[in-house]
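PT: before anyone asks, these are the final sequences, not the draft ones from last week. 450 residues across everything. Please model them as a single complex and drop the result in this thread when it's through.
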Amino acid sequence: MKILIVEDEQGLRENMLTYLSEDKNVCESCTNLADALSKLGLYNYDFVLLDIGLPDGEGFEVLRYLKDKMREEAVIIISARNSLDDRIKGLNIGADDYLTKPFHLSELKARIVAVFRRKSTNSSNKLVFNEIVINLMERTVTINETEIILTRKEFDMLLYFVANKGKVISKTALAEHLWGDEMDMHDNFDFIYSHIKNLRKKILDFTTNDYLKSIYGIGYKFTDK
Amino acid sequence: MKILIVEDEQGLRENMLTYLSEDKNVCESCTNLADALSKLGLYNYDFVLLDIGLPDGEGFEVLRYLKDKMREEAVIIISARNSLDDRIKGLNIGADDYLTKPFHLSELKARIVAVFRRKSTNSSNKLVFNEIVINLMERTVTINETEIILTRKEFDMLLYFVANKGKVISKTALAEHLWGDEMDMHDNFDFIYSHIKNLRKKILDFTTNDYLKSIYGIGYKFTDK
DNA sequence: AGTTAAATTCAGTTTTACTTCAGTTTTACC
DNA sequence: GGTAAAACTGAAGTAAAACTGAATTTAACT
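LR: through. Structure below.
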């Protein structure tokens, strides 16, 4: 595989370089943001190992660049900080995994293999909204890495909401999406109230943000912010 | 949304009226060409659902009228004939969609939504007036990047004002747009005063410009400058 | 079949927006 | 400036909408 290593610490960079090269990988490295973006502009890689704290900016820029250009490179973030925010931010912008310094080179290799397998089986089809991660293939939802168990209706409901993130969804539109338009619910939204309530409860058990806002008289809105 | 239904078949007309009213639309209806033109002369609508075969003429006249006056109303033609000619003729004169009887009311609604989305996405979803940004899909209003929470009536009111930016809106026109013409408010504008007051207050909490000017004895005017 | 979970209904409660009202301020016109 | 109509204001009442917990019905899975 062709791997780009973006890391300013000389020792770590050279260790990764030699260690990964032993496994028949083609490795290149650079020490700052500008060089990384320039290299990515010239070549395609299979993997980018990305330090966040770089001398000329944050590694997130690379992620944004790749996401913006719809590039296929797998990215593993390598960061000194172990904050949840950075981890989630990285995964949000499209990173595939996250590694905190210090780490064993063997762990790095294991993660590369794992990410590669996940990407090639194409089951990494996930939607990320802050601490909420929705895996479409597995039909699972995790919040802060703990899975919440949703029923069919709850999951479909959540999907419809996130598919229309930010937009206001009327209760009738919701009903039509979930039950089809044959359903006549003359002014009876009890079951919607019920499902909304249950979905909200499950979400609020693991995060304090209210993602599902009510718009009085209009409907509901799923929001990121 | 404010919808005008032009349909001479009593059953169908009443069905559409009740069905669409359920979705918080303000609906009015008439049964012939003359009334339709008269109503369009008096009020603005968001949508016109237009039957072609009317007792006193062809619905195409309405389309010509709207086109001639450069009106913004979206038009969905409803016709018993399924001839390609009519369809083409209608779309040529400026109809946005075409529906052949008989049809399901759910299909009508789906088309209304689709036409509305097409119309609104074509003309950049967001309305911007200096520091005020109105997002129709999200049903949000931000002033200097902070969101202000508006109720239904406040939001609809604001929309009506900005749609008629610079023009003076009489209180009766405002009342008719927001409540439909069934509402009789014999010289009692208390609720308008109330809503205006609340809307103004919310706006003035975040900007010092008075966008909503009162024209004594006449009405109100939303202005940019 | 029987068991469990999910979907829906129900009745009672809380919340919210809309309207009304009474009192005050502003405006146009004499 | 005085006056009456028009416009505004804060607060209170009211009905609709939304929410809730639990009960019931329905569907799903051995």
